[in-house]
Amino acid sequence: MKTRYRITNALAVFFAATMVFGLTTLNAAAEEKAADDSAELAKKLSNPIAALISVPIKLDWDTGIGNTDADRSTYTIQPVIPLELNAKWNVISRTIVPVHIDAESPVAGGSDNNGMGDILQSFFISPKAPTARGWIWGAGPALSLPTGSDGLTTDKFSVGPTAVMLRQDNGWTFGALANHLWSISGDAARPDVNATFLQPFVAFTTKTYTTLGLNTESSYDWRTKDWTVPINVTLSQMLKIAEKPISLQIGYRNYVDAPKGGPDWGLRFQITFLFPK
């Protein structure tokens, strides 16, 4: 009986130890998978055409505009939605919706403007896998829709090409996004649109999912021969609230070139909601 009792106890201890070891291993594996998932999400955040549904909501505030040092606040929603074309290709929809612009008058005695801005819709056809050298790319059409309020719209429907190319390696992301728009219809009394947008960017993401970014969102108006060149420095942190991943970002920009009366500097505040598969 004592021998049987000892064997039973030994078996019980063995199975208990096995269960504890198994649960610890499963917990460690779950934590490792969660860390891998978070690292992948942080990486995708730096990729403008990642196969990830995201909804950035941002406030851009600029100041030093005109001879009154006026301020301008732009509230934007920018959903990114990937669509599977086939086994090898995705279509990435990027929509920029300036839902509200609050612009003080740049001249003394002038009227302030506030309301919605023009919507920019872009579609990028992009291969699911990077190239042999690790490059990620996408290209397609861009469309500007004259949805803005009076004084905040071009009153023109504009189209043109857009493209992006980037590479990601050891926490670094670098590349460029560009588009060009020509107006094809709209109010004949308003100036035509002929503008190029250039956005070279570089970012580094740490193991704690903090990302330091540097870019310029430059535009060139071929009609007036004017550059607008803000240099943006941003700091982002990815975290989870109620198990849902989000990214918080703050940024500072300095306008190194702008048309006469353009802004001097500005700030950015952004929250991005992520919806991984």
In brief:
By secondary structure, the chain is α+β, with helices and mostly antiparallel strands. The protein folds into 2 domains: 1-36; 46-275, Outer membrane phospholipase (ompla), Chain C, CATH 2.40.230. The chain has 1 helix and 15 strands.
- The CATH homologous superfamily of the largest domain is named Phospholipase A1
- Silhouette: globular
What name is given to the CATH topology of the largest domain?
A: Outer membrane phospholipase (ompla), Chain C
Kindly state the number of beta strands: 15
Q: What's the N-to-C terminus distance?
A: 57 Å
- As a percent range, the share of helical residues equals 10-25%
CATH architecture of the largest domain: Beta Barrel
What summary fits the major beta sheet?
15 strands, antiparallel
Can you lay out the helices and strands and say which pair or pack?
Layout: H1 2-45, E1 53-65, E2 70-77, E3 80-84, E4 89-103, E5 113-115, E6 119-127, E7 135-145, E8 156-169, E9 172-186, E10 194-205, E11 210-216, E12 218-221, E13 226-241, E14 244-257, E15 265-275
Antiparallel strand pairs: 1-2, 1-15, 2-4, 3-4, 4-5, 4-6, 6-7, 7-8, 8-9, 9-10, 10-11, 10-12, 11-13, 12-13, 13-14, 14-15
Notes on the structure:
With 277 residues, this protein is an alpha+beta fold. It has 2 domains: 1-36; 46-275, Outer membrane phospholipase (ompla), Chain C (Beta Barrel), CATH 2.40.230. It contains 1 helix and 15 strands, in the order αβββββββββββββββ. It has one helix at 2-45, and strands at residues 53-65, 70-77, 80-84, 89-103, 113-115, 119-127, 135-145, 156-169, 172-186, 194-205, 210-216, 218-221, 226-241, 244-257, 265-275. The chain has a 15-stranded antiparallel beta sheet that branches. A hairpin with a 7-residue loop joins strand 6 (119-127) and strand 7. The N and C termini lie far apart (57 Å). The model is unreliable at 22-33 (pLDDT under 50).
